Amino acid sequence: MTGYLLEIGQALLALLLAPGLTGLIRWFKARLQGRRGAPPWQPYRDLRKLFGKEVIVSKNASWLFRFAPYVIFSTTVAVTMLVPMIAAPLPFDAIGDLLAVVYLLLLGTFFLALAGLDPGTAFGGMGASREMTVAAIAEPTIALAIFGLAVGAGSTNLGRIVEQTLAHPGAVINPGHLLGFAALFIVMIAETGRMPVDNPSTHLELTMIHEAMILEYSGRYLALIEWAASLKLLIFFALLSNLFLPWGVATTLSPGALGVALIALTAKLAALAITVAVLETRIAKLRLFRVPELLGVSFVLALLSVTSSFLLK
Amino acid sequence: MRGLFGKILKTPVVTEPVAVAEDDRRIETIGRRIEERTRKLIGRSLHIRQVDAGSCNGCEIEITGLLSPYYDLERFGLHFVASPRHADCLLVTGPVTRNMAEPLRLTYEATPEPKIVIAVGDCARDCGVFKGSYAVAGSVADIIPVDVIVGGCPPEPADILRGILTAIDRLPHHFGPKRGTK
């Protein structure tokens, strides 16, 4: 029972933290650019405003356009329940493993691309085609990068992987782990639309991927999609930090362990957010046709990670 | 790499506070007063869509200046967006040419309520030097309802920023006639 409560609490916590995480990246980037920037809690204000605004739907749009934001949001929330964030063996681990996580995320991406195509605007279709190009190469890599860990843990269950890594701390410096981390980090950048792949703050339609698909959305639909996008960022950060550096994750359900887990999670998320902000300040966006090369590199890293995990087992 | 981050560490935050003029003759508030509900909703998060209705691009250059570290409009929760569907505010420049009258009207209709319109520059106010041209349909207010006009040819970024903050009632020390409730 406590496990299920914790599961729901974990999803609520993720929903609550996600906009702040996006805000933190933006704020830190602004500071690096010598600007004062919007405060880290600005995305909460944006979301509140969007929920209070009128919804305008293009007359060319079908039911799919209204349906897609709910699918995108609910699949992302469902994923938060499967990813170990503050406690490791949780009851929902039995429901879905790594593959469920990857394909629920892909379902959201698929509906986002459909929603981009639906109103029939030029930029929406362009964004959808680009998103699918990126997703087609990125999705298998997510699974493969985590398979490297799954081989060591003997299970594709994310809770089990965390438990196993906690039980054998030496595994963290395995080549399988390190290569997997690098692969997943690159894929995280591609999947969440961050800098060398997509520019999250662009105003130029020709360079957009994620933004181009949601140009037609307004009001609460836009709020749901934006919220889901920051939630996806948080999910990837949680995967990166808790699968590869699981320290802090509670293995018992005592209040003390959970408190430590909460602090550890926040610290890890903030550290990753700052890393991404520094990286985005340093590098320019890649030309679109070079993105598959970058993703190819991450796929090869993931493949090497699985191979070395097998060989060193 | 050391060069870039060395420079970042050496350069302080250069954003300047908003200067307040004793008498803001350049900013006219017309049309409806902003309602309390609207102010609460978009006062701290205003997404702006810039519409060039036929300007000479002088105003656009000044608007681009708003994004610089010096003026940094994002610190007020203002943000430029790529679609009128995402916007709460239209920032319209230039005399409205015959070709742009319809797109401007459509953009206004595509923007979800509540929305405000700010006309930037002398051309947007009264067509400026293009007044009477056969190619001009009229000033911005002739085509869509305008809330605030920022005059100047071109207006300085600071003026535009003050114009936007006036429109959402957030100017720190407002010397002009008070609008709305504080």
Structure report:
The complex is a heterodimer of chains A (313) and B (182). Chain A is mostly helical and 313 residues long. Chain A has one domain. Chain A has helices at residues 2-32, 42-51, 63-82, 98-117, 122-153, 158-167, 175-191, 210-213, 219-244, 255-282, 291-311. The longest helix of chain A is centred in the middle third of the chain and has 32 residues, at 122-153. Chain A is globular, with a radius of gyration of 19 Å. Chain B has a single domain, classed as Rossmann fold, CATH 3.40.50.12280. Helix content of chain B is 31%, strand content 17%. Chain B is built from seven helices and eight strands. Chain B has helices at residues 2-10, 36-42, 58-65, 98-110, 122-126, 140-143, 157-167, and strands at residues 27-29, 46-52, 78-80, 89-93, 96-97, 116-120, 136-138, 148-150. Chain B has a six-stranded mixed sheet with strand order 1-8-6-4-2-3, with helices on both faces. A two-stranded antiparallel ribbon of chain B has the order 5-7. The relative contact order of chain B is 0.23. Mean pLDDT of chain B is 85; it is low at 174-182. The chains are: A mainly alpha (313), B alpha/beta (182).
Q: For the CA atoms, what is the radius of gyration of chain B? A: 17 Å
Largest β-sheet summary of chain B: 6 strands, mixed
Structural class estimated from helices and strands of chain B = alpha/beta
Along the chain, the helix and strand elements of chain A come as HHHHHHHHHHH
Helix coverage percent of residues of chain B? 25-40%
How many strand elements of chain A? 0
End-to-end span of chain B in angstroms? 48 Å
The average pLDDT value of chain A, as a whole number, equals 90
Oligomer type: heterodimer
**What kind of sheet is the major sheet of chain A?**
none
Tell me the greatest interface: A-B, 34 and 33 residues
Q: What is the number of helical segments of chain A per DSSP (H or I, 4+ residues)?
A: 11
CATH class designation of chain B: Alpha Beta
What's the helix-strand series of chain B? Answer: HEHEHEEEHEHEHEH
- Based on secondary structure, the structural category of chain A is mainly alpha
Number of helices of chain B: 7
Q: State the separation between the terminal residues of chain A, measured CA to CA.
A: 36 Å
Residue fraction in strands of chain B: 15-25%
